[in-house]
Amino acid sequence: MDFGLSEEHLMIRDAARDFAKQELLPGVVERDNKQEFPTEQVKKMGELGFLGMMVDPKYGGGGMDTLSYAIVVEELSKVDASCSVIVSVNNSLVCYGIEAYGNEAQKQKYLTKLVTGESIGAFCLSEPEAGSDATSQKTTAIDMGDHYILNGTKNWITNGNSADYYLVIAQTDKEKGHRGINAFIVEKTWDGFEVGPKEDKLGIRGSDTHTLNFNDVKVPKENRIGEDGFGFKFAMKTLSGGRIGIAAQALGIAGGAYEMARDYSKIRKSFGTEICNHQGVAFKLADMHNEIEAARYLVYKSAWDKDNGHNYDMSSAMAKLKASKVAMEVSVEAVQIHGGNGFVKEYHVERMMRDAKITQIYEGTSEIQKIVISRGLLRD
Fold first, then answer.
1. Could you tell me which of 254, 270, 274, 219 has the C-alpha nearest to residue 331?
2. What does pTM read for this prediction?
């Protein structure tokens, strides 16, 4: 067992950490207040290779491992979770989905643009009545021979207005249930595609989350991913990797909130001494650090499982369940340590607390993770 990071991983970590402090931190509170999409920051992340880290270099990607990707998402999330979720979706849902299951023509047409940030992707599974129950797809794709006609609504879509390409899950044959679901690559410019209202969210407010409407959108047959009926399996396989990204995001939020609380406790005084010298605060910091380290090993283990060809369905669910819980608990304690200042936007921790909550919800709620874990335990 080797718990150390390689020289390459350390270099990647430091590069992401420096970028977060220099490029993401300035203006992060303002972007949160205004719900402003970080266009310039995303462009720079594309230039640094953060948007296609795990993609084969022959398509313009970085060819890095999953652990490198998790480390980058963690470091970005310590400062701005709105930016890190853009990295997560583009890498682990969109780029991975196309590279792992798309054909060569799809990779050449779409993947090569997604890895550089020239184009951004979105993953469209959730619906008004199909959030955790992903089998209940109301969006339909009717087979018309050489194309499909797509109709329906998708909710809570990250990069909803900023994306150029959308991976859309839709029902083709209702009689077949989940075996009648397909996945399609849809372009934003196609007739009948409409971006609906932007959500006014509690957290990750710099990320643009929209409802999407598909009204008789004509999707060429060549834009279906995989064989007919592969869509549900595609979504589940892709989400397993996506959970590693969200687990890393939660880990980063927790780490960022902890570091702010620790540093603040060293300068804030009460009763004649820095508050870190009071046992009540010191013990909080000890508990926060302990939980973060426990979550980190689950997150890194799930990335290691994926990199080594092991089944990572269960380990990614465990990582997301634990890390999201830790993010919520640690960020709440960070606000508490800051006292009244913790309730003020200037000190960032109230934003971290708001950002943390979504990690327990998207890409599978904590309750769904428990279903995945319990099924894995009982399968044998």
1. 254
2. 0.96
